[in-house]
Every structure is written in C-alpha cells, then in structure tokens.
C-alpha cells in the first residue's frame, strides 16, 4: 500500500527472456544427426554408408552417379560402396516430427539433389584450379578409394604400407565353402528344422508350382495374410521352390517379396520364422541377390534372430549372414549394422552347424580392416584363441586368427592374449587332432606375429617354438616349411 492507503499497481515489463525464446526455438530445430550433410535438410530416407556416416539415400545415389565424393566438415571423405537403410534413425525422425509438431519430410527430388551436388562439385573444382596440377591430384577425393584395399578377397591383398606387407605372405589355406552348412539341397535328407506342407496344403503347392516365377504376387499375398497357417504354407513353398532352382532364386528375389519375408522373420511362431529364414538362405545363394538382400534391410532382422530367435532359426540366420558376407560390397555394411557381437557369441555357444557357418562368416567379414578392429574391441582375440582347442571349429577359427594377425592392432592384441603359446601348443599336438590346413595356418599366424617383433622372439623362446618349428621344417608342407624357416632365422638372429 502507498502512504494514503491506496493500492499501488506495480508495472512490470513482461518480456520473454532470450533464454526462454532460445529454448522454444531449439525444440523446433531438429538434432544435428537428423540433417543430411549434403542436402542440409531433414532426412526422409536416411541410409548408412560403408564408412559409417548417414546421408539422405538419394544424395548417395546422386554422388555415385556423378562420381563425386564430398569432403565432410571434419575433413573425412565418405565411402559410398554400400548403402544400408537406417530404419532406426528414420523412426527417430518421425517421432521427433510428431512430438515437435513439425512436418514429416517429403521425399527429395533427384533433380534438386543433383543441382546441389553439382554446385558442391563445381566449388571443389574451382578451388582446384587455383592450385597446381600435382597438388590437386594429392587432395582430390577419390571415389571408393578404400574399397580396393579393404574389400578384396583373401587371395588378393593390396597392403597400403610396409607394415602391412606381411599380409601377402599369410593368406590362409583352406578348402573354402561357398554355401552354408545349414543349406541342404533337394537330394539330401531333410533335417529336423524343415517343415513340409501337410496333406491339406499339397493342392496349394502343386497349383502354385505351375505359376510363372515372375509372378511373386502369390507368395507376397499369402505371406502378408493375417492367418498364420497361410503364412507358414507360403514360406514352406518359397523354401521348397528356391532350394534347387537357381532361376527361381533370381527371379523371385524382388523388393516386395523381401519386404514381406522380412516381416515374417519377426514371427513368434517357430515354423514360420524358421522356414522364412531358411528360404532367405536359399535366395542368398545367388550372387545377384546378395547385395539386393542387404539393401532391403534384412540384416537387422537376422541379428535379432541370432540374439532371440528359435534355435533352428538361429542356425539358418548364421548361414544367411555367411552367404551374404561372401559378397565384398556387403562386408563393411554387415559389420556396421552390428552383426559381429551376436556372431561371436554364437561361435562359443551355438550348435555344430551354426558354429561352422559363423566361423566362416567371421573369416570373410574380417577381410575388412574395420571389422577386424571391431572384433578386437569385443575381446575377440582371446575368444578365438580359446576355440583353437575345439576340434569342431578349430580349422575355421584359425582363418579368423590369421586375418587378425595381418594388422598391427591384431598382432598386439593376439600377443597380449598369449597367442604364441597357444599356436605352438596346437602345432605340438601334431596330426593326431589337427588337419594339415590347420597346422599350416598356425604357422602362417606365427609368421605374421613375428613381423618386426622382439616381443615375439621372447615369447616364442619361452613357449619352446624352435623345437616345434624344426619339426615343421622336416615334415610340414612346402608352404609351412618356408614360413617356419623364416621364423627360425629371426629367432636365431642377433
């Protein structure tokens, strides 16, 4: 109150504080990871590329079509050799739009993105004109610069430094399989995991068999049915049709069939999930289907089966990943999407057939350096060395060990995990428990570990490697003899 008993009205200036305004504005601004680095717009269809970054899918296709590789703000250049839909990020963007009241982004127009990419490539080109030709050739980003060195099969390594030159001498020896162990052709007896149609569905099978393989609509309709029985009969027929018919595999592997099949991989019914996964294995056998299947977003569903699927389904999921990993373009993508941890777990605890497929899957995946690092970070060096005592998978596991020993990080991790003593122990057992290829690859792994390593020499002497290696020189294969001689020369040197 004032001095005369009257109420005094305070006049307070009501003004929104700058901090409140900024907070409100920030709610309407999308997180930075939702924005495509090329289009600078909220992504409609985000996709992960081989080097791990996420872009608008159309932007990646435009860059590949124009042969342009952008330089990102952090100075790195992405690798566009494989493109995998980022379903989790797409869902997160949709949820953010719903909560913030923002509009869901529309599909970008190819021509608009092309204009943006051409302007970026033009600015890069104009900057190069100001420098000399030699300097420009040093800084120009080269499309797929890493693919040639990382995604080559084991027989054609191209080391990038003198340190990696040892790789050329450690190519594993093994009669490689190109089909998963879980795959059984029509001539072989059925396995316990196979579910054949009963008598009531035989008419449906025979009627559908006469349909042209170009007509995948029949399969898709049945697979999308709400009736579980219809779903089961559809995947059983698809599995049976694609088991031995190569033409059917190629023609039926369409985008809409893969989309329908993908949903059934999540089925809570064992018969549906198992036969859907087995049918996917059959489709993956054709080389022309391998990249198509990965790009359809199948890998996350296979990973979920490896973690929580039915036992028979896990076996087929391991076989599918092995089959898909045979394609160079898929190797990095499979690692980026998180398949390595469940594969490593299944290698230790799975059944015989699934473990064999997992071991070969890991061999092909670790031909890529980025996957070798991921395996090492998961503690894979110790796990793999421990499995060399297991006759069931030792011949395949040693291949993965050879791949790890081909890089500096792998050699350090293997030496820390007592690889020298372990490998010498395998050689000491001799031919009683190990095949010739297993022994040869143990020598190859030791040869890689010995590369410029005084620590190896000390560990080898402590493990009694000289005696074992002399026996290899006397009775081993020519390939093993040559490597054993080189190791002995290093051990006897100054």
Automatic annotation (TrEMBL):
| Catalytic reactions on record | S-ubiquitinyl-[E2 ubiquitin-conjugating enzyme]-L-cysteine + [acceptor protein]-L-lysine = [E2 ubiquitin-conjugating enzyme]-L-cysteine + N(6)-ubiquitinyl-[acceptor protein]-L-lysine
Reply yes or no: does the keyword Ligase apply.
Answer: yes
Which GO molecular function annotations are given, in alphabetical order?
A: ligase activity; ubiquitin protein ligase activity
Give the U-box domain ranges: 29-103
Class of the enzyme per the UniProt entry, highest EC level: transferase
For this protein, the record's InterPro entries field holds:
ARM-like, ARM-type_fold, Armadillo, Ubox_domain, Znf_RING/FYVE/PHD
What keywords were assigned to this record? Ligase, Repeat, Transferase, Ubl conjugation pathway
Q: What is this protein called?
A: RING-type E3 ubiquitin transferase
């Amino acid at each position: 109150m004032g001095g005369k008993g009257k109420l005094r009205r305070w006049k307070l200036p009501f003004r929104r504080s700058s901090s409140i305004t900024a907070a409100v504005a920030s709610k309407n601004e999308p997180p930075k990871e939702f924005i495509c680095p090329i289009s600078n717009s909220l992504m409609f269809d985000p996709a992960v590329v081989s080097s791990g970054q996420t872009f608008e899918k159309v932007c990646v296709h435009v860059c590949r079509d124009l042969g342009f590789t952008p330089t990102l703000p952090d100075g790195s250049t992405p690798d566009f050799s494989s493109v995998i839909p980022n379903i989790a990020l797409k869902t997160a963007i949709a949820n953010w739009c719903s909560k913030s009241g923002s509009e869901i982004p529309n599909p970008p127009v190819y021509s608009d993105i092309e204009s943006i990419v051409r302007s970026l490539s033009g600015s890069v080109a104009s900057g190069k004109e100001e420098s000399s030709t030699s300097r420009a050739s040093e800084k120009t980003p080269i499309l797929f610069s890493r693919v040639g060195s990382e995604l080559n099969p084991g027989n054609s390594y191209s080391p990038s430094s003198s340190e990696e030159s040892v790789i050329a001498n450690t190519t594993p020896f093994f009669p490689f399989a190109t089909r998963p162990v879980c795959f059984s052709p029509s001539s072989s007896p059925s396995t316990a995991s196979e579910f054949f149609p009963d008598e009531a569905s035989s008419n449906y099978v025979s009627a559908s068999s006469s349909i042209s393989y170009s007509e995948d609509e029949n399969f898709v309709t049945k697979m999308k049915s709400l009736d579980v029985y219809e779903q089961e009969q559809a995947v059983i027929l698809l599995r049976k049709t694609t088991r031995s018919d190569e033409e059917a595999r190629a023609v039926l592997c369409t985008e809409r069939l893969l989309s329908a099949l993908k949903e059934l991989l999540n089925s809570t019914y064992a018969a549906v999930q198992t036969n859907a996964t087995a049918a996917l294995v059959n489709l993956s056998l054709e080389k022309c289907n391998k990249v198509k299947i990965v790009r359809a977003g199948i890998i996350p569903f296979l990973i979920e089966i490896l973690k929580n699927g039915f036992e028979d389904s896990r076996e087929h999921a391991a076989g599918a990943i092995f089959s898909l990993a045979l394609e160079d373009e898929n190797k990095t993508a499979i690692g980026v999407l998180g398949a390595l941890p469940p594969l490593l777990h299944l290698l230790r605890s799975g059944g015989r057939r699934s473990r064999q497929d997992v071991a070969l899957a890991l061999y092909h995946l670790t031909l890529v350096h980025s996957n070798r690092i991921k395996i090492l970070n998961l503690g894979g060096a110790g796990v793999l060395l421990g499995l060399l005592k297991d006759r069931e998978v030792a011949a395949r596991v040693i291949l993965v060990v050879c791949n790890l020993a081909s890089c500096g990080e792998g050699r350090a991790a293997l030496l820390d995990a007592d690889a020298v003593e372990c490998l010498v122990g395998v050689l000491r057992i001799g031919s009683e428990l190990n095949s010739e290829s297993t022994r040869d690859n143990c020598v190859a792994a030791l040869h890689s570990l010995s590369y410029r390593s005084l620590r190896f020499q000390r560990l080898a002497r402590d493990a009694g490697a000289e005696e074992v290696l002399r026996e290899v020189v006397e009775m081993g294969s020519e390939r093993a003899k040559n490597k054993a001689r080189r190791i002995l020369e290093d051990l006897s040197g100054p």
